[in-house]
Amino acid sequence: MRHPMLYGGLELDRAHGLRHASDPLALARHPGARICLYWRGRQPVTGEPPVAALTDWASVGSLIDSLAAPLVLLGQDGEAPVVAADISGLEAPEDGPDLGLGRWVMLRSAGGTLPRQDAALLAYARGILIWRERTRFCSVCGQPLTVADAGHCGKCSDDTCGAPHFPRTDSAIIVLVTDPQGRALLGRQPVWAPGMYSCLAGFVEPGETLEEAVAREVWEEAGIRVRSARYVASQPWPFPSSLMIGFMATADGEEPNPDRTEIEDARWFTRAEVSRFGEASAPGEHGRFLPSRDSISRALIQHWLEG
Ligand SMILES: [Zn+2]
Questions:
Q1: Rounded-to-integer distance, Cα 285 and Cα 297, Å
Q2: CA distance 194 to 287
Q3: Are 70 and 63 a contacting pair, CB within 8 Å?
Q4: For residues 43 and 45, what is the distance between their CA atoms, to the nearest angstrom?
Q5: I need a surface site. Which of 116, 125, 138, 297 has the fewest CB within 10 A?
Q6: How far is the CA of 160 from the centre of ligand 1 (A)?
Q7: Could you tell me what reaction this enzyme catalyses (predicted)?
């Protein structure tokens, strides 16, 4: 299985030591700084195949100033700070502002075609800016937060409270279950495009280990008792704020009994059957297709197919 998963493996120095002492605005003004823009869920890419389109203060400084755009220090590339800027305050057509940078894409639509380092950088920027956008008030006392640690912490503005709030990551397990006949359990949610089958997944609950979450989700969604579960790999999934924790698990192969709510269908498939699944753009046998190539779900299925 290829490690790390897409959206992970960023080689950028996250410059933890700089966060406490530095104002991200001053860092963005640094002559060598690279600025990673974000606008209403979209990020700029250029070229074909695409690469991330980063910019600099000379090009977008006045825009950032005029919008008082939220900024986050992502890290340092040599001496050059790398800063994420949320310019969602800018009014623009649905497909993004024309800043001469290229086209504005949703990461999920472009992720699999970007260089892996670019996909990881955009995932990081997207994840932390979405957290900033959605975390503006103290969840303890309700007062506004002030930004600290170069964008990586929101501190309650009420002196008697003062609670710090850190970027949130929601842990979710994702699991490919196999049976003694070598078949894999795949299911589909009613909200997915018709024909797509994927691994089972769900959020980890308080007071639960990852292995327990695997067993619970597979039981709840498919009515199958897992015998053993083994961690394989994880993937940052900033859509909006998950960490997908991938497992391979075994079960006895009894008939699935999907819950019909979260999962409308779950069944055992042989390798031969799954190898005849197509892609979303060209579904295969019975109109079925696999999840997109940027996902850990696809990687788990591919790993099993080749195993
Ligand atoms: Zn508070």
A1: 20
A2: 8
A3: no
A4: 7
A5: 116
A6: 8
A7: a 5'-end NAD(+)-phospho-ribonucleoside in mRNA + H2O = a 5'-end phospho-adenosine-phospho-ribonucleoside in mRNA + beta-nicotinamide D-ribonucleotide + 2 H(+)
Task: Choose which CATH entry (3.40.190.10, 3.40.225.10, 1.10.418.70, 3.90.79.10) describes domain 170-306.
Answer: 3.90.79.10
Query: At residue 244, what is the residue type?
Result: M
Spacing, Cα 24 to ligand 1 middle (Å): 23
Å from CA of 172 to ligand 1 middle = 28
> What is the rounded distance in angstroms from the CA atom of residue 125 to the CA atom of residue 269?
38
As a whole number of angstroms, the distance between CA 195 and CA 284 comes to: 9
Using CA of residue 86, residue 92, residue 95, residue 101, what is the dihedral sign?
A: negative
pLDDT digit string (tens) for the chain, length 307 residues? 767 899 999 999 999 999 988 899 999 999 999 999 999 999 999 999 999 999 999 999 999 999 999 999 999 999 999 999 999 999 999 999 999 999 999 999 998 899 999 999 999 999 999 999 999 999 999 999 999 999 999 999 999 999 999 999 999 999 999 999 999 999 999 999 999 999 999 999 999 999 999 999 999 999 999 999 999 999 999 999 999 999 999 999 899 999 998 899 999 999 999 999 999 999 999 999 999 999 999 999 999 999 8
State in Å: Cα 284 to ligand 1 middle: 53
> Beta partners for 11?
none
Beta pairing class for 200-203 and 242-251: unpaired
Neighbours of 94 (CB within 10 A): 7
